[in-house]
Amino acid sequence: KKRAYIVNKIEYSGEFFSGTRAELVAAVKQSLSEHRFQHVLRVEQAAIKLAKLNDVSTEKASIAALTHDYSKERSDSEFKETIKKYSMDPDLLNWGNFIWHGVVGAQIVSHELGITDPEILNAISRHTVGAPKMTKLDQLIYVADFVEDGRDFPDAQIARSLAYADLQAAVIFETKHTLQYLMSSNKTIYPAAIQTYNAWVAGH
Q: CA distances (Å), 94 to each of 46, 70, 106, in order?
């Protein structure tokens, strides 16, 4: 049975998401602006490529990539309500969208899309600041978001070639790059980002 989105040749098994890939794409599209939606599709392409290179389930990579920014454009008040409703760490209330759309976003994905696989939800949760210990799926969503073809920051090309050659080296590069950016722009750094740096960069 041919689907409209044959690019990735990914048939969903029904184990991680109850519908087809086309149905998940449609649900994500409804939740995002066109600009953000196109970014998500590019992240999925990168994630599938990385999954094949690193022996990770392409289905899980596709689902996690398509949903990683699912709640990115929700209002601050919706994030705050979700934190309270699900009794999440109250410290989250002190942060903003950059942290929320990952950590709180995973909760929204679970609730609205019925995706409950812990590894997929963790990959969504960790895609902005990483974690000291990351599964291969965590790593490839973290990296795919950073190196998708639309990214054009300085060193994007280096990050890209690194990603497809050595996933762990790409995680280290990205973590260092992100911390340097946050420090150079005098932004408050989320504690988990520092823990990721200590584990991945300082520890290597």
A: 32, 21, 18
Other beta carbons within 10 Å of 16? 19
Residue 203: φ, ψ to 5° = -80, -5
Alpha helices in 15-126 (DSSP H): 21-31, 34-53, 58-67, 76-85, 97-113, 118-125
Residue 54 CA: distances (Å) to CA of 61, 130, 166, 182, 202:
11, 18, 9, 29, 24
Count of C-beta atoms within a 10 Å radius of residue 61: 29
Note whether 99 and 118 are within 8 A (CB).
Answer: no
Render pLDDT for 154-203 as a digit per residue (tens, 0 to 9): 899 999 999 999 999 999 999 999 999 999 999 899 999 999 999 999 97
Residue type at position 14: G
Joined tokens for residue 16: 């991680």
